[in-house]
Every structure is written in structure tokens, then in C-alpha cells.
Specification:
295 residues; mainly alpha; Farnesyl Diphosphate Synthase; two-stranded antiparallel ribbon; 15 helices; 2 strands; 1% strand
Length: 295
């Protein structure tokens, strides 16, 4: 990873974390609920979705990324709500997330559920109040985020993932699950950043293809790290996919096969990025970061 990308990611994380601190200082929320929401929001996440949104916007305009800040916050709030609920006993039943106790272990199950609900609903309120967006832009962002995170998006992927446990899935089944569960919010980040920068519909179509492959790259690497990653860097034990009897890329293709499949996705992502005339931008450099990350 280049120094440019490294500093961009760190600056994006700092901006997002500071924005959350400021936002919640001015929110009148019951203390237990606020503590639970902030606990998971500020538990050291990579902020890859806000980073992608900022990068997409910055790849097509020199304007300040302040226009995209609240949208990035809303996106991360929805991502965090999904993690809180994913960790619950009824879902993945995990004890650790990002190296610390999961929300329901730190607080209790009911509080964790409500914290997730609150993050989800507050995210849309945040966008509706964004003074940097026009009414047309607010409608686009709210509608896109609702679709990407709802029953035709991330939530669809979650239930397909649950239904796939214990079954022998093929590569097409796996791609469909991750297109929704992981890919939809990544696609939202890239398309919304570019939309707010004012790109053409044709460019958005090419970026949609890029985002699709980037989501799959992210997931292949996730599956590889669950097999051979460093638990300290990951902040959680490895091998949870096998314990939950989930189909994974290494499980279907072997470790070498999964690595080769990732290379195929990277090539397809490069072609889409070239068509969108975004080669040499931050998006281009982040493509390789996603494929090589170690946590």
C-alpha cells in the first residue's frame, strides 16, 4: 500500500470517528443506549465503506469531501448495526468482534438489539438533515441506502447465508450470497460517491461492475484470512466459517483455487475501472488494498 493510500485511509478513519463523537455529543439518547451504540461504532473498525465513498467522490472531483461526510457516517452506522445483529446468539453467536467483546456480551442481548435498531433508523435521519445535499440528492441517497441494506440487499444476503449453512453450495451460489451480503453496501459507497461528484450515468454503470467485483474480492480475502490469517490482526479467532459449516471460497476451491479466483475478480474489476476512466485514481489503488489486506 502506498503512502498516499495509507494516509488517505487514516485521514478518512479520523474524520469518520470525529464526526461520530461530535454527532453523539448532541444527541439526546438514553445513556445505556448511547453507550452501546458508540461501543460498536468506535470499536476500531477499518471504515472501508466510508473510505470507498470518500475515494469514489475524490476520484471524480476536487471538491471537499465534507459533502459526503454524513452519508459516509450513515453507511457505517448501517454496517455496524448489521455486525451487532450478526453477532447475536440467534445469528452467528460470536463472543469477539474487532478484538473486544461483542455488543451483547458487553451489555446484554436486548440492549444490543436496540442499539442496532437505533443505528439503522438514525442513519436515515442523518441524511435527511444534511445541509450539504439538495433535496434531490437526499432522496437518491436515502433510497439507494435503503435498497442496498434492505430485503433486496444486505438483509437478503444475510438470510441466504444462513440458509446456506450446512449445504454444499457452488461458486454461483456463493457469489450471489456475497453480492448481497457484502457487495451491496460496497456498491452503494462507490456509486453514491461518484453520483455526488456528478458523473454520467454511463460512468455509474461501469462503476457498478467494478463495485460488484470489488465486493467479491473483499469476500474471497475474508475467507482466506479466516483460514490462514493472524487472529491478533483480525481481532477474532480464525476458523469460525468452518465451525459454522459455511461454504467458503477455500472450502469450494481449495486455498490456491481461492487465490486464483481472486486474481480473476481483480482482472475483471480492472477492466470495469478502465472503462469508467478511473484508472490511476484512489479507487484503483484501493482495489489492490482490498485484495492484499491482512485484517
Amino acid at each position: 500500500m502506498t503512502n498516499k493510500v495509507d494516509s488517505f485511509i487514516e485521514e478518512s478513519k479520523r474524520l469518520t470517528d470525529n464526526a461520530f463523537q461530535s454527532h453523539f455529543e448532541h444527541c439526546e439518547i438514553p445513556e445505556q443506549l448511547k453507550n452501546s451504540m458508540l461501543y460498536s461504532l468506535l470499536a476500531g473498525g477499518k471504515r472501508l465503506r466510508p473510505v470507498l465513498l470518500f475515494a469514489s467522490y475524490s476520484s471524480f472531483t476536487n471538491n471537499s469531501i465534507s459533502k459526503t461526510k454524513k452519508t459516509a457516517m450513515a453507511l457505517e452506522m448501517i454496517h455496524t448495526y448489521s455486525l451487532i445483529h450478526d453477532d447475536l446468539p440467534a445469528m452467528d453467536d460470536d463472543d469477539l468482534r474487532r478484538g473486544v467483546a461483542t455488543n451483547h456480551k458487553k451489555f446484554d442481548e436486548a440492549t444490543a438489539i436496540l442499539a442496532g435498531d437505533a443505528l439503522l433508523t438514525n442513519s436515515f435521519e442523518l441524511i435527511s438533515e444534511d445541509e450539504h445535499l439538495s433535496d434531490k440528492e437526499k432522496v437518491y441517497v436515502i433510497q439507494s441506502l435503503a435498497k442496498s441494506s434492505g430485503p433486496a440487499g444486505m438483509v437478503a444476503g444475510q438470510i441466504l447465508d444462513m440458509e446456506g449453512e450446512g449445504k454444499k453450495l457452488n461458486i454461483q451460489d456463493l457469489e450471489k450470497i456475497h453480492e448481497y451480503k457484502t457487495g451491496q453496501l460496497i456498491t452503494f459507497a462507490i456509486l453514491t460517491g461518484a453520483y455526488l461528484a456528478g458523473v454520467s450515468k454511463n460512468t455509474l454503470e461501469h462503476l457498478k461492475q467494478f463495485a460488484y467485483y470489488l465486493g467479491l474480492i473483499f469476500q474471497v480475502q475474508d475467507d482466506i484470512l479466516d483460514l490462514v490469517g493472524d487472529p491478533e490482526k483480525l481481532g477474532k479467532p480464525v476458523g469460525s466459517d468452518q465451525e459454522n459449516d459455511k461454504s467458503t471460497y477455500p472450502g469450494l476451491l481449495g486455498l490456491d483455487g481461492a487465490i486464483n479466483q481472486k486474481k480473476h475478480y481483480i482482472k475483471s474489476a480492472e477492466q470495469a475501472l478502465d472503462a469508467s476512466k478511473a484508472n490511476g485514481t484512489l479507487l484503483s489503488e484501493l482495489l489492490y488494498y482490498f485484495g492484499q489486506r491482512d485484517h
